[in-house]
Amino acid sequence: MDRSHKQRLIIGFLGAPLILLAAWFGNWWFLALICVIAAFSVYELLKLIHYPPRVLMIVALVMTPLCLLAMYRLRLDLVVLILVFTAIFTNISLLFYKKSEYLKMSFVGIGSIIYPGLCLGTMILLRNLQFNGTEIGRNIVITLIIGVFATDIAAFYIGKLFGKTPLFPSVSPKKTREGAVAGFLFCTVFMIFLWARDFVPFFGFIDYLVVALCAGIFGQLGDLVESKIKREIGVKDSSNILLEHGGFLDRFDSLSVTAPLFWIYVYIKFFL
């Protein structure tokens, strides 16, 4: 086992329990963790694209946790107000920038608050879910995290050992179709196991299959999208803060797609 693989395993074994424990206890613990992940992800994305206005970057990094705090309080109206304020501030700030690249990128900061910021923030909405007086959010979030982790692990190792056919060579040459299929199947097996254990109250077999679809298919697409961004810019990782895992954006790109998609599904299922 080489040094890079050891680093990958160490970070994984340390990080996964931390995330699952925060999801289990919820409240401010989970909010704080998601704020850290989202803020770092926003920062890494803006750094990747060489976002020029430093003031606007600071605004994006401040407004992201404020939006997540509003989501935690279930004040989605405040989320809208924060985004509107950011748009107005960004619009006025253009008066003080002359370079054309500033004009082209002026609203990228707002976009970064939405993705990956608010997309990761849907984890907070999911964690706070209750139905008929029963807390279901904790187990939903844990199920979602397990689904994404199971997909990533199987896709990585099966792809590395048996992968021969490139999945999307122009975007990520190392990812293979064999690994992608294994990731989805491995995630589905975990979901069937959780269904058999009746892990999430009020969830049926179809609901667990939807988790498998979100994590096992769309989660991998989210990973490819982030790979596309990095390839266009010409970098390998969004940062090296997580060593062999890259940056927060690298590690949580799948959840940035999986969580909002499953939040939409759950909202339609329980509240419409």
Estimate what percentage of residues fall within beta strands.
Answer: under 5%
Biggest sheet, in brief?
2 strands, antiparallel
Low-confidence stretches: none
Q: Mind telling me the C-alpha Rg?
A: 19 Å
Binned, the helix content reads over 70%
How many domains make up the 3D coordinates?
1
Structure description:
The chain is mostly helical and 272 residues long. It has one domain (3-271). Helix content is 76%, strand content 4%. It contains 11 helices and 4 strands, in the order H-H-H-H-H-H-E-E-H-E-E-H-H-H-H. It has a two-stranded antiparallel ribbon with strand order 1-2. Strands 3-4 form a two-stranded antiparallel ribbon. A hairpin with a 3-residue loop joins strand 3 and strand 4. Helix 7 (137-162) crosses helix 9 (205-233). The mean pLDDT is 89.
List keywords for this structure.
272 residues; mainly alpha; 4 strands
What is this entry, summarized?
With 272 residues, this protein is mainly alpha-helical. The protein has eleven helices and four strands; from the N terminus they run ααααααββαββαααα.
Compile the SSE list and pairings.
Layout: H1 3-25, H2 27-48, H3 54-72, H4 76-93, H5 100-105, H6 108-127, E1 130-131, E2 134-135, H7 137-162, E3 166-168, E4 172-176, H8 177-196, H9 205-233, H10 248-251, H11 253-271
Antiparallel strand pairs: 1-2, 3-4
Helix pairs in contact: 1-2, 1-7, 2-3, 2-6, 3-4, 3-6, 6-7, 6-11, 7-8, 7-9, 8-9, 9-11
